Amino acid sequence: MSTKSPIILKKHTICKIQDFLNPADSLILRVKQAEPDSAFITLNDDYFRNQLNSSFKHLVEKFGIKTYNPIIVTLLDSKAADEKIRELEEQIANLQMAQGTIRSPGSWSVSSSTESAPPRIWFRMRGEDQAISFSPTHLNDIYIVDDLKEVIKDKLELDVPKNRIIIYKGETNLKGDIFITGLYNQIDEALEIVIKEVETMKMVVTADNKEFYFENAPRTGSPEEIIKFINSIPSLKPLIVDCTVLGDDYYQLSEQHIKFAQKSGGCLKIILSKPGVIDTGFETHRITLEEAFSYQFKDPHGMKKNFMNYLNEKHKAWKRNINNYVPYSTIFQSSGYGKSRLIKETAKTIPTIYICLRDPRSTGYPPRTSVGADLFERVLGDLKEEEEWKFLYVLQNAILCFKEELKNSTSEELWNNQMDASFCERIWTDIQKKSETWRNISFDAINSSNNLISDDNTDDVHLLFCIDEARTLLSQDNYKKISLFRFFRRALRHITWNGFFVMFLDTLSRISNFAPPKSADPSGRDDSNLPLKLFYPYFRLTTMDILKSDDNEYNEHNEYFNLAKFGRPLYFSYLQSCKDNTQAIGKLKNLLSRKLLGGANSFKESQQEISSLAILSSVIGIDMSPQSRLTSELVASHMTTCLALSEDRERLIIAYPSEPLLSEVALEFMSDSTLPEILKQFNSSLKKGLVEPGPRGEIVSRIILAVVAHNLKKKGSVNSVKDFLTELYHEDSTPDLTNFSDDFIDGSVAFTHFNAVSYVPERKDLENFYKRRCAFIMKRNHPGADICIPVRMKTGEKYSVIIIQIKNISTSKTDQKYPASAQSMLNCDYVFEGTDLKNHTEPCLCLYWQLGYKQHYQESHSSRSTRSGNLETKNLYWVTFGLTHYKIEDNIADILRDMLTSYVSPFDSEWIVNNEEGDNWDDNELKIMHPLRYEKYKEEEENQEKEEIE
């Protein structure tokens, strides 16, 4: 037989062979007659030279080609074709006819049984005795193993994806692209079917400020597969709408993030959000924030000195009791106060290793530390319990590398270098290489001496390790459901390096994890006999108003530029960094809007209960209960300031200081469309006890005034007192201004928010409050007045005040001191006794509101009564009884009436539970449990039933 070059088949001839061909490859074809005793022959050019034989149909008919009598195709490099053909012919000649199977290196398909009866493919599930088979007629159009898996899946009704089905022939795992022609067999040679266990990974899904942990989520490879998995989880379905996306936008969850989580064995973190939702950190364009971060540092209150003293004292306490403390503490406060900037200034004095764990997709500044952040998260994610000390090997290498840098750099230069991405990539790549063997080290590899940092026996910190955006360590999880932070903290317990200290930076959202309450600290269970003590966090960043000094001149052409000087430093430094950008104010206000809403794009998309508290608190000044579950979240994500933290870390005192820009943004939410829902949510919080009860009348009055301020703001930032009264009262409830001072009536009000004072204001305070657009709430139980609104007189640099006394008496009566409470006790010499405002000579507007009155009544006093008689006065006194005097929509008035009488009651809807699980509310059960208090309810019901019968 000729051994010329074998035929290279054309496309579409045999089972899509072209899919496997390279240009230099050749094919050898071997066939035999259908009879059992026929021998194989090799087809070459001589066979196909005859035109008749070139027909593939003729080939099939002549040799009886069927599924169980296939053409054997061998792929060969063309150079080896002749020699290989000779070898194959020799093998064929020596074969016994009944054996009928030829295998050759590189062949794609193999002939099967030569028995006269059509063969079958037998298979069974591994571990089972029963075998099932397919005849050739069942396998029409089935060519390769992947296709066979689909047939097996249907036959056995397997509810698993095809990629989990494995077919074994003996010990061989059959690849999906192998042709099935060689798989025809006898029952005792049945193929084995194995269902592969699902490969899993750890996943945490965050939605609506809730976290859902999945220990055994499928190991997926694309965002599409993640979406499919999330959609299959019943607990997540209520949180998913048509516009839900992964992360800040769809593309932020990339295959790179998925592969990293798979490789590191860490936890894949998924965020479900709405389009346009941004990171809850104080994020905007990185370039602008970088410039703002470099704005001149001012420290009039010695914050840096205080912080360095804090560091050294904590280090000293650890050094003296190394078995009872861990050398770390935390800095927390809400966004914009300058936590990272404080570290920058400290780093000029104390050498600092800085690592930022910010999300790599964030545009915040400082940016995520290249390579270093990945290294930390990966190593901490791979740690096992009782081996936490191995992390110190990485930490030790980092210290040694940075100490080497300090040989040629100052502390300040080292910090500046770490703000450069190329430097971070270089040094952390070096640290990563030096730490590659961390899994296999022994404890001896850890430097246990106390002089790794410093040779002297210092009490001060000589090297600070700072971890910014540290919340990442809390949200990531590992096999044992122990946060990366706790692994880190356990590792720090083994440190003996004198002069070394660690600081974590973040907002307060998870302070209970960084510095857990004493009653719930999981690290209290320790190998030592002494309980682990945690240092009190550092949160008193005294940066409020530091940029309102005289060298920042008043800009009469840009009101927002002036208002930005009041409050936390980021506002003004941000505007300064882009003062030539005409859209800077809009971008800053948009940022503050999102911050108030916890990162959401609109109030509707936000977590409305807490967003309502944030909006109202920043406008009307609400006192939150220190025990409220919402206090830490308000600090972390809604711009609230933490003023105090109890020593046991169980309670927080929070507040919204006067920040005109922030309050103006909040005021814009109090529109006719949004305000009703805000007030409903707030009223519900009152009934749940989340907010300090306080005088309900004062809260309602401030809401009324805030609505007025919102409506006035549409006309301009400054409005006349006359416009204020017109917007406040219905026409028939407006006081007669005929004989009142034009200088006052034409003067201006500009308030956008309220702040409580603990002192009696002086004359200069009227100007200060006016300039920052703030009305003030008198301290609780202050005699004579509850609210004061500064007024700038029309002529000259003079200021006066609108004084308001609030009553909430739910009867037709007045308070016991009326009318004196609406006249002689409602003026400057009584309200501001003890200050220079006692002798205030400018006219004032004095308003007396009795909000609890159910009817409608009003009166004016042109003079004020005293024990010696009536005295003429420059002031205007105006008294109103009831809520019907004020220009508020009916639906708003209904909510405010309910708010005036609301209190925490188990009969309110907020406490009633009725569900499909059989929890059914019954008023009578509660009355039985507390009969003396609620028996009256029962009596009223019985009386009502009697009336109905009669």
TrEMBL record:
It comes from the Eukaryota. This is Crinkler family protein. The lineage of its organism: Eukaryota, Fungi, Fungi incertae sedis, Mucoromycota, Glomeromycotina.
